[in-house]
Hints:
Strand content: 25-35%
Low-confidence stretches: none
Number of strands: 9
Order of helices and strands: HHEEHEHEHEEHEEE
Radius of gyration: 16 Å
Bound molecules: S-adenosyl-L-homocysteine
Strand order of the largest sheet: 5-4-3-6-7-8-9
Distance between the termini: 33 Å
Amino acid sequence: MTSQRTRARMVERVRQQGVCDQQVLDVLNSTPRHIFLDEALAHRAYEDSALPIGHNQTLSQPYIVARMTELLLASGPVSRVLELGTGSGYQTAVLSQLVERVYSVERIRSLQEKARQRFGLLKLHNVHLRHADGGMGWPEKGPFDGILSTAAPRQVPKELMEQLAIGGRLVIPVGGDNDQELIVIIRQNDGYEQQIIEKVRFVPLVKGLVR
Ligand code: SAH
């Protein structure tokens, strides 16, 4: 269930679903998704679905993780990335193998602590974590070449747009519970360009901290 063959089948499905960035597919192929789940669910890690990680939160479907990563990297190599919603840490782990540094913010402490252990296990040393409400970004560490949110605000927080470097890309689901779209915002010299990618379903971006 957790073998390389099962993982390779997952990657093949993601490719068929339309993800074509080979470096993203390679990282999916080499990253053990099952260690990002509690033991009782680990056998389902390579299914084509989102999975619960506790606290009413979910680890996104493999396709969505790959697609968002591909969109973040679409303008070329990326050095500093901000992620909102560390959750299980799987998306963080994928990013950390493709960019120089990942700054990841999570509001639920216990999820963050489990994710931290997983990064240690995989020896991913370029991940920097913060227990905070990420809705305002992480201004001290910006500007970022990429910002990726794995929770959906009703509207794009302007603080996030402001923390993008010129040419930087913000990949974020936006909208209410049953009506969300994945969008990409690209910062240009004189403003922002926006692309709507597809309908998605994410947990909401919530204010405040959980110990
Ligand atoms: N990237 C995660 C997805 C987790 S689901 C993974 O691969 O597993 C979204 C996460 O966003 C949850 O862990 C949730 O607690 C977190 N979140 C929601 N609102 C937040 C906020 N305002 N600041 C930081 N994290 C937030």
